Amino acid sequence: MSELKQSKYIDITTDYGFKKVFGSDTNKDLLIAFLNQLFRGRKVIADLYYNKNEHVGDTEDIGTVIFDLTCTADNGERFIIEVQRTSQVNLKKRMLYYSSKLIADQAPKGNRRAWNYAISEVYIIVLLDGFAMPDAGEEKYFLHDICLCYRDHGKIFYDELGFIYIELVNFVKAEAELDNDLDRWLYVLKNISSLKGLSTYLRKPIFEKLFQLAEYSKLKPEEREMYNASLRNKWDAESIRSSQEELLKRAREKAMAEGKAEGKAEGKAEGKAEGEAKGKVEGKAEVIKNLLSLNKFSISDIAELANVTEEFVKQIEAEKAKGK
């Protein structure tokens, strides 16, 4: 692990690194400061409590719940925050499931009439490290702040259930371009393991404490082992994701090429359009066949990756089984 010895600070986007810096009562001022920047004044957390249940989902997932928190705002309001670092397959559905469970778990065993659905606010915060937000479009936002709103005019319908996605791949500011503390937090999250020290742009007490905690040389031997294992897990996950993305990219490029070639062969404009459409469908089928061959994804996973319906995936699966 010579790479680690050359890095002065640990990578705090690893599960171990994040918990090391943010995961204890003595350091919760760091987490409170970070979360308050994410809420951008909409909520001001005065205190928080680390709940015992560390994972509400499936334990075999690569990405796990980092923290399950009960927070108290400066006005006395209490709400629940779950901090996730997860993979991208079925990302939106996973977060909806986790938030729904956090809401459902608030229901008392009995006397629900008296309770009258007095549920606390719930927020899911997702750290996307190394990959883009699914279906995010062409605009490169690094922060996605989401709530329930009216489809027609965008007015907020219900703002006590929220999702905040942090898309670190889109945060590309240099130190001299950091405009506010949110910028500084995201810069540190993304870059601390490659930094040599605390620059003047980050010279604040909260970041001085963070950098002290994140020094690799200050880790105990057993802590180093846990961090090294966590970092290897992150590298392995990134390698798998990169291989999958490259496979999808090649399949799509091949499909596009075949679709255009077939469309041109039709001759007429109408025939060309039909040929290109057919080529795109066949290209999707080729992508799905490749994913099925990996034997690593469910039908719903493949449908999301290929941007098709589950019925279409099942159709291709049946055709593949018949040897078509």
Topology:
Blueprint: H1 2-5, H2 15-22, H3 28-39, E1 45-50, E2 64-73, E3 78-85, H4 91-104, H5 112-115, E4 121-128, E5 143-149, E6 156-167, H6 181-191, H7 205-213, H8 221-265, H9 269-294, H10 299-306, H11 310-321
Parallel strand pairs: 3-4, 4-6
Antiparallel strand pairs: 1-2, 2-3, 5-6
Helix pairs in contact: 8-9, 9-11, 10-11
Short structural summary:
The protein has eleven helices and six strands.
Considering the chains and any ligands shown, give keywords for the structure:
alpha/beta, 6 strands, globular, 324 residues
Task: Determine the oligomeric state from the structure.
Answer: single chain
Number of strands: 6
The average pLDDT value, as a whole number, equals 83
Low-confidence stretches: 55-63, 267-276
Order of helices and strands: HHHEEEHHEEEHHHHHH
Query: What overall form do the CA principal axes indicate?
Result: globular
Strand content: 15-25%
Helix segment count? 11
Largest sheet: 6 strands, mixed
First and last CA, distance: 47 Å
Overall SS class: alpha/beta
If strands are numbered along the chain, what order do they take across the biggest sheet? Answer: 1-2-3-4-6-5
Helix content: 40-55%
**C-alpha Rg, in Å?**
23 Å
